[in-house]
Amino acid sequence: MPYTIDADTAGFFEAAREGHLVVRSCSDCGANLHPPRQYCRHCGGWNTRWRKLTGRATLVTWTIVEQQMLPTFEVPYTVVLVEPDDAPGVRFVGSLPGRVESLQAGMAMAVTFETVGDGVVLPQWSPTE
Amino acid sequence: MYDHRDRCAIVGIGTTDFTKASGRSVLTLATQAGAAAISDAGLAATDIDGIVRCEHDEVRHNDLVETLGTANVTYWSSVGTGGAAPCGMIGQAVGAIMSGQARTVLAFRSLNGRSGRRFGQAGRASPRSIGGNGSYDEFFIPYGLAVPGQMFAMIARRHMIEFGTTSEHLGSIALTCRQRANANPNAQMADRELSMQEYLTGRPISLPLRLFDFCLETDGACAVVVTDTERARNLPHRPALIRAVAQGTSRHPQMGLVLPTLLRESLTTQPSADVAETLYRRAGMGPEDIDVAQFYDCFTITVLLQLEDYGFCKKGEGGPFASGGALDIGGAIPINTSGGHLSEGYIHGMNHVVEGVRQIRGTSSSQVAGAETCLVTSGIPVATSAMILTA
Ligand SMILES: [Zn+2]
Fold first, then answer.
1. What is the CATH number of the domain that holds B264?
2. Prediction pTM value
3. ipTM topping 0.90
């Protein structure tokens, strides 16, 4: 269960609970700041906020995990890394059950929302076809 | 700006045996390696007035002051991050000596990496509240991405996507390190040969990485003694002059410990590219001047990325370069001549420093004939450090 009350990152999980994918962004210069932080290094301002994304992305890379490292994760499973279409340079992680052999770099991915218990919701990513 | 070029040297090296179960405390291991390094330098413990440790070490500087019986230590420091530390630790020693804060510095790394606290395991995180407080683990571990091996698997896959790198390319790095270990009696894999067939059919861990893409887990310690070059000239061994040393974070390293580095825009260029630029400038040298290299090798892909970042081949050509014989003794750039982390043992980058000194002395079990320059690198991806040793 992720820690969802961190001062800098809680808003990401609060938005997910309401069915939204968000990225921390600078209101002044538009830069994306992920993992979330308060200060914009690009323009030197503190005027940052949560920006809603469409949830469309492309696949950057992945791994098929065959050796169990976490008691709650049954192998095999596939971990994916995606780049949102509307937040270039930002990366999000997702996971899919089993060995997903059909993955191709650059393929279209879409967000889904997975409730993992106690009202905690994780954005997840799957191929769109 | 002060120039540290050739002003200090490594004059003593010491190691323990490398095993799966030392049966000794990390303090005993550190004391053994430290005493061996001081003796090898032709010095007494009372000559040591500085100590540098890795921030992950369980042994503190005052522990060794007490067990070894050093002088009153007037300089100590702890360097990170993890495996990125060792060459940076040598840099700290150089800084201490050149600023007059110490004259003779012991740098060490000691761990029961197999029988004690094992790295690369995910067991530490409490399942009820993963991450937070500046760790950023909440963006990774709830997705089953918990350890460096899984992260480097995704980096390896990305290198394959961008450049057509193959498992055979990575395998050639594993086989090279194993062949060097087969000549090194102190290597954990001294007696175990490895074929490409065994490599390719190794147990899948986190694909595309398999068992032999991963480093060993080791109980052991390494230590070295650093002093000024003037003093070094009067000691028993040929000094390994520290031509130059460099640390570097890169400009946008990402936050947190390890996993957030996966969120960088490029996965196939690492902070080693920035350190290489600084190091070569400080040394007045380039990759063409390097006779032999000890690359930090927590995984095979780590070596491949560094071959490119340190300029031994072009970006993207690390795979064909590695599998074309360049890494062999007599090749363009022989690497990891004691077997490295993949096959000698995992002393968190400090065994690479020790082996670099052996190459300059001419005493390696896989000696590169006439080697006068050795590149030694420390770990990626968080930040890194490296140095060039010369005869
Ligand atoms: Zn801004």
1. 3.40.47.10
2. 0.97
3. yes
